[in-house]
């Protein structure tokens, strides 16, 4: 009797309850036994069931599970998943590594067995279900939109599944073209398959049996056939394939060739006595064919060869046609023609038609032969090349693919619906053929290795079509300057135009040509000119294991069998990748980017990308976005799996000597890298990323490499971004562009193109031949190009602007069009710019390269942009992000080179004559115009400088100026300058001698000249250890009274004694202890090394000067140096360490550098005799410089003692800023710190703790010094603000202001009347800020308020190597702003304060000396010194050439070495004391000690004003390790 469903439910419920009670009472042993028996019964049942029963059971089980899932609520589902995850996690946590390996192994076996048992239908069902589940999962996650993706890469969350974001998903291939039924992904363009219906070709026929079964794995020999498919095709091909195949290693997942590809065909019958080959084999008996083919390839299956042979003989129209004609005409003189593109007689001309047997090959009638037709002789023994554009090019070479003989591409295939009878291009034809169709079987996708060869062959055909056009047109297309063509035709009407001009060469529009690559490199440099150095260099490599690729493979295929899918998926992923940067802004807002796709080695595509970010990545942020370590497998198992599969280099070396990166036994990629505890700066401009060893927080893992288990640690990890790798599951190398040192390499590397071979040139002038012979083509690249995917992408666009002399524009003509070109020459962008400036008032305000921002170039004219930002004050004008680049010109083309310079300096030119006009006078040449505009460097600068100075200034100042010019400006003819100005140099000497002799008629004599020469040479020796003879000037005659054997300064002992006696009693206890200890070391020749630890305001400078006086008082030599020019001016006879010790310009810890001091020179002798050296602000100096001084002194003094046995006093405060390492990380700075030197262990510490500044201001603010010390030591009290460095400042440290205007008014009140104040008023006040950009902003803002006319000085920038002038044009050099150099455009006013950027004449004019401008002349700045020992004196500052040391681009900037100094950087203010200071903290301090330095420039908080953000929170960066 049947039970009802309620009864059944009740029974089952009761049964479950009983079972639960029984299970609850059983012990763990009983439970294990029960489960074991249950598993055994289940396994026995599973083994007995048939495939049908199994499918039925699984189906019912899935239905029950689905019903349960549908009925459960979201809460129940969440609970179920949570419980399930918990159980799984507990089981995983309890299992050992051996159990885990065993579980995974068994799981893989079960999966493999299931895969083997499933039919093709089941596999397709499984894949569809898997895709649906993945899509459902994706849809659930897609709604989870991140609230703020800006700079998301800096906030990586290991728990978040970034790969499921909608913005990075490409979806499934389910978009169907309505015209051709091609399947596409949603983001693929509509026209990529059939050009929106314009390409209409019949589908390829399904191959006959047994070939289809062989392709679809339905034949017993399918595996063998598909593995050897290229060999089988070669047995039946009718033409020979000519190309050099490239193989790299044992595993080559792509087909790759070098050089030309060509097909050759012979006669129908072989020459007498020779075996038939290729097509000739088809004309012998079937048995002989089989025997011959088997002997050619003995490893192939004879039965299979026979089956294929039969299929081709029965179905291939070419074989049948050739046989039919040969049977009818057996003569050896038989000639057959296969027309390249003839339409069958019965077909419509507007359709693409397949050939029939009777129309493939016909008897040759000579008049019918076309240039690309194939003529087959009966027997002539010659090989003929088949034209790539012949319709039979494909079927003759690939009979296994085109079994019935379907036509390939030819020129006259019509486009559908074209109004002008356009034809289908080669690219369109093969893009159509490669598409997956939803309603038809495309046999091409099943041919694996042969398909790879076919794609390469067809790309070579496509390129050959373009190159043949260029080659054909070179015979008739000519190029010449317009003026030459015009003159030739005007002077001789009968001249043959084909004899004018020159051949056209491979143009820059041809992708991959040398000019194409050069233009892309120059475009990258244009971005650098406008946006500075790039921030990120990223390499994104395709992952062939992506599920989107595998989902589209047919059964049995591997990903590298389908490079069409690989290319399409990677193209879509690359677009998503760029969108993630540009739209989602995961690294911040992107100002511009450049991308270049390449194929190298084994053929997978990869993309190099450069990104310029609006917010620069700071050194301390690197580790949060770029990692070179294995992730924690417990915290982030998904990322760990991705990194171990994709981001491990090699391993190579001893693990694999045959690795592609190995050369001469060494890895060319420099792996394994060394362990690093912290990220540091490398010598090549890239950071050396943190790679910790396993004993210091690093991790390792074990990988199977070539059958062996290899342990991998962080030394093998390629730098990556966790977010990017987790998002795209691919090899994504991310590099931080640390400095411009990397720019030159990157800009060339990203545009170098795919691999090319090195070969000897038969004709070095034939660029087409050289390109074809040197190229490599791989399958993946071939497919990419056939689909017309871009190889280069960039944003914003760059408009290339022509440059040419008048009537010198390039014109192209044929013999038939030469006269027409003369009458109507082509307009160029330059001529259009002239016309625009004549018509448009706004255009007159622009430079040539600025035009594309406001105007578009179309139809040979410039028109105003319709979209973009409105330009204030100019209605109707809109500005876009487009950039202009004027074509580069080599200096050897002198006039055109100087014309180009003028175009970057003259606004709104209306003609060529306008460019030549200077001050209303039209110059004869562009060079003369450049010279008169001051755009060229020559010796006239120095003569004009001295002339301007001689008009109003004393001879002594002229001599000082002459010394500066000799030392810094390298005049080419210094003797000429001496001869011209020697009388002005000697005027005061002659006047003195006239007074002495009471003879006012005394002329200039050699004695007078000699005295001046002695004075000049003494100054040269003092400043740079140089003689006059070193400059080609006459050496003075010296007597005993003025020898040059010593540089010892003579001091007045009485003055020194008085100074010592007056000030020693003033010493506080800690100062007195230091004073007595140092003096004792000198007096007893102990040669000790001291560090005087002196926080700001503790009287360090006062003590140092007292010690110097004490030592000099006793007749001994005491040398005072400082790391900065300002600090040097505070010491008695102090100089900078660079000028005193001649420190090397470049800093390298890997080189044992020394100072440039001659042992027998004056400076060498001075150091040999010295008893004491005091080095102030030593904490700012790089330890490599200190170590170089140590090595030098040991050598000079022939002593092994530290510092050569001199008593050496380092003075400073490690709470203040440490050595400047350009964009250096914390580890870089600490590595450069003096405390990291081996010398530090020899140092004796002396401490000053009494704050003299506070003491002198009374006890009102006695807490101020203690607060400063707490700030400096990083223990200043602060709330929990979320970061280690954040502090809150209040009125106890200074008066708080909340806007920049208030800060300026507090420090510089009544700035409009600045000229009424004494220079002393200026020198005691300043505004300081952490960054140069804010300093420049403040300086420009204050200068605008100062009354007076602005004078703008533009620098002259030139490359030191003339060959670099094309690569680095002048406007690019103008855009560079290296540290320590003045800007290209220096705007100044009389009455504004400036600061020196070079040590022109220490100690009076040092780097950091502040001056007040008195006169601004064309070639000279006259200023009053307002700081240092020469305060109140006038100084003359000329332009000097300056070469930056931190750039890979060697260039020279000729400019005044000054900057405006209302505001200073905090680093520049170190060592100075002010009465009033403003501190701009809108931008936070970014390195150690900056806030401490800023707040300790005054003695009391009442005297400083602090500009803070609204919350009063700022950053106090302190490196605790520097204070230990």
From TrEMBL:
Superkingdom of origin: Eukaryota
Every DNA helicase Pif1-like 2B domain range: 1371-1416
Keywords, comma-separated and alphabetical: ATP-binding, DNA damage, DNA recombination, DNA repair, Helicase, Hydrolase, Nucleotide-binding
Chain intervals with Polar residues compositional bias: 12-22
Annotated Pfam families: Helitron_like_N, PIF1, Pif1_2B_dom
EC class of the enzyme, as a word: isomerase
Protein name according to UniProt: ATP-dependent DNA helicase
């Amino acid at each position: 009797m049947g039970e009802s469903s309620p009864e059944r439910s009740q029974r089952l419920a009761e049964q479950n309850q009983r079972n639960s009670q029984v299970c609850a009472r059983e012990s763990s042993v009983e439970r294990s036994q029960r489960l074991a028996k249950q598993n055994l019964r289940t396994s026995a049942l599973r083994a007995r069931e048939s495939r049908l029963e199994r499918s039925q059971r699984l189906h019912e089980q899935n239905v029950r599970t689905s019903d349960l899932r549908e009925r459960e609520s979201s809460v129940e589902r969440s609970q179920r998943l949570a419980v399930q995850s918990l159980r799984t996690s507990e089981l995983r946590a309890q299992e050992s590594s051996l159990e885990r390996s065993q579980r995974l192994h068994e799981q893989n076996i079960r999966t493999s067995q299931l895969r083997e048992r499933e039919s093709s239908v089941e596999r397709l069902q499984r894949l569809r279900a898997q895709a649906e589940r993945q899509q459902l999962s994706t849809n659930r996650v897609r709604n989870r939109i991140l609230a703020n993706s800006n700079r998301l890469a800096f906030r990586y969350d290991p728990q978040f599944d970034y790969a499921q974001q909608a913005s990075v998903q490409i979806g499934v291939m389910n978009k169907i073209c309505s015209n051709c039924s091609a399947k596409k992904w949603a983001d693929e363009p509509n026209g990529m398959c059939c050009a929106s219906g314009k390409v209409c070709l019949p589908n390829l026929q399904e191959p006959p049996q047994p070939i289809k079964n062989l392709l679809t794995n339905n034949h017993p020999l399918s595996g063998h056939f598909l593995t050897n498919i290229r060999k089988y095709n070669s047995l039946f091909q009718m033409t020979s394939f000519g190309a050099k195949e490239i193989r790299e290693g044992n595993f080559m997942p792509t087909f790759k060739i070098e050089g030309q590809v060509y097909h050759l065909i012979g006669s129908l019958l072989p020459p007498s006595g020779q075996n038939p080959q290729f097509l000739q084999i088809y004309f012998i008996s079937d048995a002989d064919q089989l025997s011959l083919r088997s002997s050619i390839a003995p490893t192939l299956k004879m039965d299979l060869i026979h089956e294929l042979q039969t299929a081709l003989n029965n179905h291939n129209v070419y074989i049948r046609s050739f046989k039919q004609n040969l049977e009818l005409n057996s003569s050896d003189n038989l000639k057959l023609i296969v027309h390249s593109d003839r339409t069958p007689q019965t077909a419509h001309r507007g359709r693409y038609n397949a050939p029939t047997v009777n129309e493939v090959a016909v008897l040759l009638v000579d008049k019918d032969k076309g240039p690309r037709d194939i003529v087959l002789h009966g027997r002539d023994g010659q090989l003929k090349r088949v034209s790539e554009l012949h319709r039979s090019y494909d079927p003759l070479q690939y009979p296994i693919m085109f079994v019935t003989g379907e036509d390939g591409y030819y020129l006259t295939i019509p486009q559908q619906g074209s109004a002008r009878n356009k034809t289908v291009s080669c690219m369109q034809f093969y893009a159509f053929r490669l598409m997956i169709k939803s309603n038809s079987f495309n046999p091409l996708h099943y041919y694996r290795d042969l398909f790879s060869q076919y794609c390469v062959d067809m790309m070579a055909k496509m390129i050959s079509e373009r190159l043949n056009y260029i080659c054909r047109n070179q015979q008739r297309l000519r190029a010449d300057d317009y003026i030459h063509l015009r003159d030739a035709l005007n002077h001789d009407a009968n001249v043959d135009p084909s004899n004018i001009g020159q051949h056209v060469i491979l143009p820059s529009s041809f992708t991959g040509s040398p000019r194409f690559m050069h233009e892309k490199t120059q475009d990258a440099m244009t971005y650098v000119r406008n946006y500075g150095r790039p921030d990120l260099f990223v390499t994104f490599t395709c992952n062939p294991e992506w599920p989107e690729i595998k989902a589209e493979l047919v059964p049995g295929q591997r990903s590298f069998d389908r490079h069409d899918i690989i290319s399409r998926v990677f193209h879509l992923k690359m677009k998503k990748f760029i969108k993630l940067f540009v739209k989602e802004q995961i690294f911040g807002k992107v100002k511009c980017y450049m991308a270049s796709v390449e194929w190298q080695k084994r053929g997978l595509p990869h993309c190099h990308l450069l990104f310029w970010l609006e917010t620069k990545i700071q050194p301390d942020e690197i580790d949060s976005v770029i990692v070179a370590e294995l992730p924690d497998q417990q915290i982030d198992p998904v990322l760990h799996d991705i990194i171990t599969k994709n981001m491990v280099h090699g391993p190579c070396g001893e693990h694999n000597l045959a690795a592609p990166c190995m050369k001469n036994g060494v890895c060319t990629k420099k792996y394994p890298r060394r362990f690093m505890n912290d990220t540091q700066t490398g010598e090549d401009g890239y950071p050396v990323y943190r790679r910790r060893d396993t004993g210091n927080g690093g991790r390792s893992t074990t990988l199977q490499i070539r059958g062996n288990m290899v342990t991998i640690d962080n030394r093998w990890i390629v730098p990556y971004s966790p977010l990017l790798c987790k998002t795209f599951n691919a090899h994504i190398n991310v590099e931080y562009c640390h400095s411009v040192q990397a720019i030159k390499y990157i800009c060339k590397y990203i545009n170098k193109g795919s691999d090319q071979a090195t070969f000897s040139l038969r004709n070095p002038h034939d660029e087409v031949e050289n390109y074809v012979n040197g190229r490599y083509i791989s399958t993946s690249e071939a497919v990419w190009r056939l689909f017309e995917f871009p190889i280069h992408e960039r944003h914003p666009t760059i408009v290339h602007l022509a440059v040419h002399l008048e009537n010198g524009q390039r014109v192209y003509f044929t013999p038939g069009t030469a006269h027409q070109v003369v009458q109507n020459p082509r307009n160029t962008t330059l001529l259009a710019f002239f016309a625009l400036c004549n018509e448009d008032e706004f255009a007159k305000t622009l430079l040539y390269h600025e035009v594309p921002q406001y105007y578009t170039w179309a139809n040979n004219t410039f028109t105003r942009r319709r979209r973009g930002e409105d330009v204030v004050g100019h209605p109707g004008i809109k500005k876009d992000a487009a950039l202009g680049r004027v074509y580069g010109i080599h200096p050897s083309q002198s006039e055109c080179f100087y014309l180009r310079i003028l175009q970057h300096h003259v606004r709104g030119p209306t003609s060529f004559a306008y460019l030549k006009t200077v001050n209303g006078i039209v110059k004869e040449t562009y060079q003369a115009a450049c010279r008169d505009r001051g755009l060229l460097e020559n010796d006239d600068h120095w003569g004009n400088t001295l002339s301007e100075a001689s008009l109003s200034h004393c001879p002594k100042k002229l001599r000082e100026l002459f010394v500066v010019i000799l030392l810094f400006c390298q005049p080419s003819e210094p003797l000429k300058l001496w001869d011209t100005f020697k009388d002005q140099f000697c005027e005061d000497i002659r006047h003195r001698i006239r007074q002495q002799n009471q003879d006012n008629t005394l002329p200039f004599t050699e004695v007078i000249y000699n005295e001046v020469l002695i004075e000049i040479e003494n100054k040269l020796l003092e400043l740079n250890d140089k003689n006059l003879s070193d400059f080609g000037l006459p050496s003075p005659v010296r007597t005993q009274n003025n020898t040059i054997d010593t540089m010892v300064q003579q001091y007045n002992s009485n003055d020194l004694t008085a100074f010592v006696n007056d000030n020693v009693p003033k010493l506080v206890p800690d100062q007195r202890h230091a004073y007595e200890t140092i003096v004792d070391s000198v007096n007893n020749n102990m040669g000790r090394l001291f560090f005087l630890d002196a926080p700001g305001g503790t009287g360090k400078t006062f003590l140092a000067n007292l010690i110097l006086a004490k030592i000099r008082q006793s007749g001994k030599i005491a040398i005072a140096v400082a790391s900065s020019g300002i600090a040097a001016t505070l010491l008695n006879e102090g100089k900078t360490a660079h000028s005193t010790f001649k420190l090397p310009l470049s800093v390298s810890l890997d080189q044992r550098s020394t100072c440039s001091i001659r042992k027998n020179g004056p400076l060498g002798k001075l150091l040999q005799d010295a008893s004491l050296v005091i080095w102030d602000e030593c904490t700012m100096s790089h330890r490599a410089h200190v170590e170089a001084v140590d090595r030098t002194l040991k050598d000079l003094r022939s002593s092994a003692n530290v510092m050569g046995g001199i008593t050496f006093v380092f003075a400073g405060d490690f709470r203040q800023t440490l050595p400047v390492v350009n964009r250096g990380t914390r580890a870089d700075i600490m590595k450069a710190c003096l405390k990291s030197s081996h010398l530090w262990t020899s140092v004796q510490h002396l401490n000053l703790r009494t704050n003299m500044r506070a003491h002198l201001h009374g006890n009102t603010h006695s807490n101020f010094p203690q607060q400063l010390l707490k700030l400096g030591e990083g223990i200043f009290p602060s709330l929990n603000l979320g970061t280690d460095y954040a502090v809150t400042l209040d009125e106890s440290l200074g008066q708080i202001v909340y806007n920049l205007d208030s800060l300026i008014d507090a420090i510089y009140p009544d700035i409009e009347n600045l000229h009424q104040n004494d220079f002393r008023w200026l020198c005691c006040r300043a505004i300081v800020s952490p960054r140069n950009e804010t300093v420049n902003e403040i300086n420009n803002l204050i200068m605008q308020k100062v009354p007076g006319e602005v004078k703008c000085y533009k620098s002259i920038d030139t490359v030191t190597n003339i060959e670099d002038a094309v690569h680095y044009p002048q406007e690019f050099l103008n855009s560079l702003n290296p540290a320590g150099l003045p800007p290209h455009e220096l705007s100044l006013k009389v009455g504004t304060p400036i600061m020196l950027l070079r040590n022109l004449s220490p100690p009076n004019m040092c780097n950091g000396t502040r001056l007040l401008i008195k006169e601004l002349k064309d070639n000279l700045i006259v200023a009053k010194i307002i700081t240092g020992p020469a305060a109140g004196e006038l100084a003359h500052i000329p332009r000097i050439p300056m070469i930056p040391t931190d750039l890979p681009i060697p260039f020279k900037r000729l400019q005044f070495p000054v900057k405006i100094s209302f505001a200073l950087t905090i680093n520049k203010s170190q060592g100075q004391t002010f009465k009033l200071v403003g501190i701009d903290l809108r931008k936070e301090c970014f390195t150690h000690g900056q806030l401490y330095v800023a707040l300790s420039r005054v003695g009391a908080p009442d005297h400083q004003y602090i500009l803070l953000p609204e919350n009063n929170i700022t950053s106090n960066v302190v490196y605790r390790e520097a204070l230990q």
